[in-house]
Amino acid sequence: MTSASSLARSTTVEKPEPRLNDADTIATEIVEKLTYSIGKTVKAARIHDWLEATTLVVRDRIIDNWFESTIKTYERQDKRVCYLSMEFLIGRLLRDAISNLGLTETVREALARYDVDLNLVELLEPDAALGNGGLGRLAACFMESMATTGVPGFGYGIRYVHGFFRQEVVDGAQVELPETWLKHGNPWEFERRESSYEIGFGGKVSAIEENGKLRSVWRPGERVLAVAYDTPVVGWRGQHVNTLRLWSAQSLDPILLDAFNAGDHIGALLESNKAEAITRVLYPADSHQAGQELRLRQEYFFSSASLQDIIRRHLAQHDDLTNLADKVAIQLNDTHPAVSVAELMRLLVDVHGMEWDAAWKVTRDTFSYTNHTLLPEALETWPIHLFERLLPRQMQIIYQINAEVLREATAGKQLDDGTISAISLIDENNGRRVRMGQLAFVGSHAVNGVSALHTELMKETVFHDLHKVFPTRIENKTNGVTPRRWLFQANPGLTQLIEEAIGPGFKDDITQLAKLDPHAEDAGFREKFVAIKRQNKQRLAHLVEERLAIHLDPNAIFDIQVKRIHEYKRQLLNILETVALYEQIRSLPHLDWTPRVKVFAGKAAPSYVQAKEIIHLAGDVARVINSDPTVRGLLKVVFIPNYNVSLAEIIMPAADVSEQISTAGLEASGTGNMKFALNGALTIGTLDGANVEMLEHLGEENIFIFGLKADEVARKRAEGHRGQGVIDQQPMLRSAIDSISAGVFSQDDPNRYANLMNSIRDRDWWMIAADFRAYWDTQRQLDVLWKDRAKWDAIAVRNTARMSWFSSDRSIDEYAHDIWHAGPKGR
Ligand code: 26V
């Protein structure tokens, strides 16, 4: 038998009979699972049991398609896309899976037969919060879009035992609590003990002679096991199912028997504790480098495991690794997996015996890298001594890559010392460090930013010199969000209304949302659109009432800023405008003020002092304003604790105004901006990140842009801008800052905000004082517009109609076509 036919025989499995998807069948199967998998009768079942049984029934249906997709990719030897990301911020999976399979109403009906409410069942599922914010959520949207558009995608990441911390606010201050998403098990994952790899750390490198050539041999001093856990990712209509493979660290030698037998029971377990610590917790900082050894261990651990897995799969189908880049594209989600560049070189050269030059070509052709931030404090570098101790062979390889890249860069050209030190992989100025951005850049054939402006700024700033040497390498791929989660599931009312207006075609082809545009002129349609917005606002108001005992009036403008708390995102600008508005309403109560509700939510990195002060201030301001009868009915402020994906799904559809007010040049893209606008909120924002493309697609009458532009910010900073000069010209701003400084909102501790306020008076690094007036004026313009409901509502409808370009399906098509050359659009 030829090897090809034996392969075909071994992989062609009998296709299972398609399952029936009517409510009777599903109800029967749920009860079967309850009985035989969970061991409960219908009578004894608690709602958690119904969740588990329902999940297992839905999962069965996904598994059938999962096998089919996997076998098809294997048999056709399709090029695969491996998305390496330290974070996947997935949220809940059950509703997503049911909805993508088209089973929402059927499952609802099946459960209703037992008086079980699907909505309540869904609420019990814990969020998979394996990410910090934008970068991790983008990875989750991309996984869903790859499955939807039929790109054979593999997500590779870390199975953290504890995801992003749970936030509570105690006496105004953020408190971080551990998150325990795996407490009741995880029915979505499959442990793959057979797919496990050894990962080494430390030890020594020696060179041995083999056939007249020198070969490096790394003998690590420590080894841990990476064990795979697979989760199926189902695309729209269940057509295609991809895999998210997350690695868990285990000790190779769980109990040191010698120590155990000698009576040292605790010592016998230390090894295993140390090994398993690698995947125990997600680092909760997204703005500055932690610099801890454990973080570097995490990065290398998941990079090496993923590459070993990719190579094993490749060699199962191909004779050697020379054609790796034809069969696999590896996308590096930021620099967190950048050590992969050195690790792939090590595997190719040291383990698989490839020549250096050939290996370098394979490496570069295989990798591509996405940059997600320009903030200097977030750019990863590692001290050489740490890198060398933990990864001695990879350090040697980095030196060699560096030497050759510098040779390539200087070939035929005269480069000055400044340029050479700027493109070097080693930073010599801050105590010798490895620069992970430079490593990712030189090891990739394509490097992308996540919005047009961000990509241009990458060329001018962080990668200025590398861009000159490799002028075609940087390109743009503007972010997107999946309309399945962020419109169909989060806003079923609006989805149904859209379907009534333009038919169901938009569900399979989101560009058809454009057909909604003329309905902006239709008063009858607008009325229905507004009725749905109102229901969504009521749902949010209900949640706030329940959790915080604060009453919100759905007739007011719901003005919402939800995202990580960071100085550059300028929650402080929003709070200052809120205080100024409060003071204006108090002093001019007879004016015709437009009622507003200001909503804030977001987490601060545990060590980020200013961000925590901003949370405290939001709470303090909320308490004073909400208890002041003079502004009752006109102004309310809430900070909702523990912002996460599930809360976002309730918040996005309930917004009238979306706050996207970062200091221009600093928000790489933003994706919340897209979710809000898709759900019919009006954006007030700076010309930053993807707001720029939103302006292009919406038209300038449908978005509210204010403030300094990126180049103006840079110029002002260079000129040594200070806040005080502006504050002196702005009585409203001065009064707001003075009130906060004087302790009006913090009578228990009047000096609490002295530093925060002084930072605006002095450096005003984030241009809060500089942009205050423009922001205030634009907010008042929105107040006026609110009174012209026909106009406001038409703009809201147009926002929904014009956002289809911001679907992550479009982003994925572009990656597939321009970078990966994989999937239906990539061939
Ligand atoms: C950086 C670091 C630094 C070391 C410590 C741990 C850690 C964890 C995450 C990060 C990445 C932060 C970058 C990030 O999340 N960027 C956001 O990416 C979004 C998706 O592209 C984009 O929409 C946001 O504008 C951008 O801030």
From TrEMBL:
GO MF terms held by the record: glycogen phosphorylase activity; pyridoxal phosphate binding
Coiled-coil residues: none
Family: Belongs to the glycogen phosphorylase family.
Pfam families documented for this protein: Phosphorylase (PF00343)
Annotated function: Allosteric enzyme that catalyzes the rate-limiting step in glycogen catabolism, the phosphorolytic cleavage of glycogen to produce glucose-1-phosphate, and plays a central role in maintaining cellular and organismal glucose homeostasis. Phosphorylase is an important allosteric enzyme in carbohydrate metabolism. Enzymes from different sources differ in their regulatory mechanisms and in their natural substrates. However, all known phosphorylases share catalytic and structural properties.
The organism of origin for this protein: Aureimonas ureilytica
First-level EC class: transferase
InterPro entries listed in its UniProt record: Glycg_phsphrylas, Glyco_trans_35, Pyridoxal_P_attach_site
Cofactor(s) the record lists: pyridoxal 5'-phosphate
UniProt name for this protein: Alpha-1,4 glucan phosphorylase
Taxonomic superkingdom: Bacteria
